[in-house]
Amino acid sequence: xxxxxxxxxxxxxxxxxxxxxxxxxxxxxxxxxxxxxxxxxxxxxxxxxxxxxxxxxxxxxxxxxxxxxxxxxxxxxxxxxxxxxxxxxxxxxxxxxxxxxxxxxxxxxxxxxxxxxxxxxxxxxxxxxxxxxxxxxxxxxxxxxxxxxxxxxxxxxxxxxxxxxxxxxxxxxxxxxxxxxxxxxxxxxxxxxxxxxxxxxxxxxxxxxxxxxxxxxx
Length: 218
Prior knowledge:
The protein is mainly alpha-helical. 73% of the residues lie in helices and 0% in strands. It contains 5 helices and no strands. The N and C termini lie far apart (202 Å).
């Protein structure tokens, strides 16, 4: 394209040749313009028109990255080869910037929602853990009273069982002793001495003589 412009400025340039150069340059530019249009459409179609409904932030980030690569290529082509006019170069950049801003804003909204959801989940988990810990350490008052009463009744039952066992053992021993006594002489009439008795103290000794009676005649 630079050679065509220089050729047109030279003296004696043929008009026919200049027209041919202009036609070829227009065809080349048309090719690049078409390629740029297709590239922008391909990237934007991956996201679609309803960007606010897209939940895949990685997909949006990929589109932004592809648009950035496209802008770098567009700039090099424009500055080094003049593939498009200045106004067209500006139009492409404005279009790409609009897409990138929409996609970036959507990514920010998704990440903000994720952060809020994560924070809420952490708070709910912390609250649930605190409630579980509190319910495990603090028992209702009536439950404590019930446990104390149950323990007291258990002690009473144990004492009663112990007393009953002792009484039963005592009765068994008494019956055993009675049976042993009766085994000595089944026909004897054993009686138990139930009263106290005194040993007489005025019994005369065998060596003492009885009192002499008064035999004198009256």
